[in-house]
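Lab notebook, design round three. We kept the backbone fixed and only want residue identities now. Task for the bench partner: fill in a sequence for the structure below.
Input structure tokens:
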């Protein structure tokens, strides 16, 4: 499947992005931009490419993850450690709208590819940088993996059960959230460029700050009331009832009955009309004081029903309720499929499902046009057609392991 067979469409059509760096945060931002129409040229090392190509479930030498993360991108191999390779990147940056990198702060400057270096040849460039702690401050030079940044951001502290070690979601959520922030920052910077004609600018995204953004209520609660929000297991502090309950079939359901009128419907549905009319529980403040009593009622009720039975009864009462899905459940669910959350690509003649990317746009939707490509499969297209290199130059660069 070639780029020529799949023309770029979407709201970012006409925007060229030069993606440097590897693994998750930068590449996920690039995936979002490519999904919505940007031409993303991904620069990879000739010696194996992005390490994500070999992570987790590997089939026939390539990670299945790669086909999702590398979708719609053009793979070009360039050795950034060589002077000639850096010159090629500099030339590509001069012909791009966005440069996206996630190296440790200072690396791009040492290579002569920092924002000030590129600005001299392309003042319109939006230069997006993702790092653990940002481009300035006393921690800027520290290595910043998502796990460490999730911890220092405050996110891990509130995630888990009281008295136990904080829990990590089995995902690189810090990288993904940072990637979303980077994509948002890039689009805002492009909008400012087109609207105000002010030229390019630097988008500085820190993993720990992206996670910090999720804690918007934690700071004022401490500043104004001296309260440190603690981990609360399967509940949310100060909102009752919202919890996870085990049913008779061993499966769990999540019930959110914390609105005043919803709580009344919930209690009536579980056979406790007395609690629905109990003045103590008429508001969330009162329910917080009696959280244990309410949770025990709901736990007892759920334990006597299958998960589907509990969900059916509460949905009839218009109470927010749902199952906890694994990936197999998602693939079988009619709503997930109706909403188009899975897209199918063909890998060596075999179908592979990868997730669609949100959000949905009615007039200019995103789409997967091709899966993550083979390493260097777009060298000729990009280096010959965009930079104008001839066959002799390409052969020479290949012989020197620069591409």
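Proposed sequence:
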């Amino acid at each position: 499947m070639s780029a020529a067979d799949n023309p770029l469409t979407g709201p970012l059509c006409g925007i060229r992005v030069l993606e440097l760096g590897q693994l998750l945060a930068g590449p996920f931002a690039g995936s979002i931009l490519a999904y919505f129409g940007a031409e993303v040229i991904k620069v990879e090392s000739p010696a194996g490419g992005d390490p994500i190509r070999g992570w987790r479930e590997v089939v026939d030498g390539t990670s299945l993850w790669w086909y999702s993360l590398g979708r719609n991108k053009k793979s070009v191999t360039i050795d950034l450690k060589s002077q000639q390779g850096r010159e090629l990147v500099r030339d590509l940056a001069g012909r791009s709208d966005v440069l996206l990198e996630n190296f440790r702060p200072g690396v791009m400057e040492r290579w002569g590819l920092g924002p000030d270096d590129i600005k001299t040849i392309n003042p319109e460039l939006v230069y997006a940088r993702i790092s653990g702690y940002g481009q300035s401050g006393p921690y800027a030079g520290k290595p910043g993996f998502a796990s460490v940044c999730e911890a220092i951001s405050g996110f891990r502290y509130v995630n888990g059960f009281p008295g136990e070690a904080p829990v990590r979601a089995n995902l690189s959520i810090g990288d993904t959230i940072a990637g979303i922030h980077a994509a948002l920052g890039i689009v805002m910077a492009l909008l400012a460029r087109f609207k105000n004609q002010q030229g390019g600018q630097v988008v500085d995204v820190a993993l720990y700050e992206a996670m910090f953004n999720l804690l918007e209520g934690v700071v004022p609660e401490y500043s104004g009331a001296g309260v440190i929000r603690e981990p609360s297991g399967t509940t949310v502090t100060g909102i009752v009832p919202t919890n996870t309950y085990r049913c008779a079939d061993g499966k769990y359901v999540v019930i959110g009955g914390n609105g005043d009128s919803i709580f009344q419907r919930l209690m009536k549905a579980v056979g406790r009309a007395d609690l629905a009319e109990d003045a103590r529980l008429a508001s969330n403040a009162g329910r917080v004081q009696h959280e244990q009593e309410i949770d025990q009622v709901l736990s007892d009720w759920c334990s006597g029903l299958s998960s589907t039975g509990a969900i059916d009864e509460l949905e009839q009462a218009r109470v927010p309720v749902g199952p906890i899905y694994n990936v197999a459940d998602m693939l079988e669910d009619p709503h997930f499929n109706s909403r188009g959350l899975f897209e199918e690509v063909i890998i060596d003649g075999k179908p592979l499902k990868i997730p669609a990317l949100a959000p949905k746009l009615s007039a200019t939707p995103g789409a997967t046009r091709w899966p993550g490509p083979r390493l260097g499969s777009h060298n000729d297209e990009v280096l010959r057609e965009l930079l104008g290199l001839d066959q002799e130059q390409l052969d020479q660069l290949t012989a020197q392991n620069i591409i």
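Keep this in mind before ordering anything: The radius of gyration is 25 Å.
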